[in-house]
Amino acid sequence: MKNLKFLPFYVLSIIPLHLLYVLSDMMFILIYYIIGYRKEVVKKNLTIAFPEKSEKEIRKISRHFYLHFCDMMFESIKTLTMGKRAVKKHIKINNEELIKQLYEKNKSIVMYSAHMGNWEWNAFFPNFFQHKVTAFYQPLSNKYFDELMQLIRSRMGVLCVPSQKGYKTLMQLQQENKLTLNLIIGDQSPSAHPKASKYWTEFMHKKTAFLTGADVISHRSDYAVIYPQCTKIKRGVYETKFVLLDESPKASDKFSLIEKYSKALEENINQQPSLWLWSHNRWKLSA
């Protein structure tokens, strides 16, 4: 059987979530107190983002981030066996009607997402919406884990699309008369190469470079653009409220969506700082 090579993860996945959180607490002790995984990167990022906060407050956010980060890893593994009924208990959609209205208007959607909350659980969206859900991704160098992540993301019906083939795939689906909801994560750091496409704007108190792909695709396709504002209600329960950034971006200024996205993401981070991926070296580029 093809998926037998992922048997250890399936075994983990059938463990009840409340017991997986016990393992998560143990992993937190290991990576936070013993290994110290990327603690300096996290501290540097938090200090840049929150210059007004004391060292004690920074440490508190950092600790809560690592607790959430460990939870998210085990929650993502749980995706392998979680049923549709369980999904409804863990994912709450605040304004599902916005997506339904866009569907009735015959509009495909770019969901301009981020490494916020448990972004891997966006793989559950096919359970909520009529749109065909796609997710852009960068293939991992490790083939085993690349296949595992695609398996996790596609199990509920998400079509995983390599980012390099993203726009071409969307146009093919459009020719097939399929309305799509397309998940594009936009908070990775662009390449440092001088010719790499990037856009600079003020974000979390610092000039920050953003990838331009989602903006370019949205303007070309004229798909409606939304941001999924994520909050964590309690352990293992997330709520998403969709923020409409632009319904017809073709008529908007170039890079206007990046400006709107960065402001929406900043507001989301300020709501619950521990939910963002602070271990990513977000500000490795300087303007």
List the helices and strands and how they pair.
Elements lengths: L6 H7 L3 H19 L3 H11 L5 H24 L5 H7 E3 L2 H9 L4 E5 L18 E6 L5 H12 L4 E4 L3 H10 L4 E6 L13 E5 L2 E5 L2 H9 L2 E11 L2 E10 L9 H16 L16
Helix pairs in contact: 2-4, 3-4
- Total of domains: 1
Count every helix, treating DSSP H or I runs of 4 or more residues as helices.
Answer: 10
- The tally of strands reads 9
Structural class: alpha/beta
The geometry reads as globular
Bin the strand percentage.
15-25%
Runs in which pLDDT lies below 50 for 5 or more consecutive residues are none
CA gyration radius, whole angstroms: 19 Å
Query: First CA to last CA: what distance?
Result: 50 Å
Strand line-up across the major sheet: 1-9-8-2-5-3-4
Q: Give the helices and strands as they follow along the chain.
A: HHHHHEHEEHEHEEEHEEH
Mean pLDDT: 94
Q: Portion of residues in helices?
A: 40-55%
Main sheet characteristics: 7 strands, mixed
Could you write a compact summary of the structure shown?
The chain has 287 residues and is α/β, with parallel strands linked by helices. It is 43% helix and 19% strand.
Explain what you see.
The protein has helices spanning 7-13, 17-35, 39-49, 55-78, 84-90, 96-104, 143-154, 166-175, 213-221, 256-271; strands at residues 91-93, 109-113, 132-137, 159-162, 180-185, 199-203, 206-210, 224-234, 237-246. It is of the alpha/beta class. It has one domain. It has a seven-stranded mixed sheet with strand order 1-9-8-2-5-3-4, with helices on both faces. Strands 6-7 form a two-stranded antiparallel sheet. Strand 6 and strand 7 form a beta hairpin. Helix 2 packs across helix 4 (55-78) and helix 3 (39-49) packs across helix 4. It holds the Pfam family Lip_A_acyltrans.
